[in-house]
Design a protein that fits this description.
about 70 residues, alpha/beta
């Protein structure tokens, strides 16, 4: 499982789609609810605020995308 925070942004959205196209299992994390591509787990969280961070995110790799 690959977790992408910032998944609804200018970099994160195409990254999530590229990972899905490559067949990778993806969890998309963003501060606002958004539609994720089919097969993508979507989690609403604020990674920079630990009190609001999704508590059960486990992954093989993580990346944060922001511009």
């Amino acid at each position: 499982m690959i977790v992408v925070t910032g998944a609804t942004g200018n970099v994160g959205r195409p990254l999530v789609q590229a990972l899905v196209n490559a067949g990778a299992p993806v969890t998309a994390v963003s501060r606002r609810a958004a539609e994720a591509p089919a097969g993508v787990r979507s989690v609403r969280a604020e990674p920079i605020r630990p009190s609001r961070k999704a508590s059960s995110l486990r992954s093989e790799a993580q990346t944060h995308c922001s511009c």
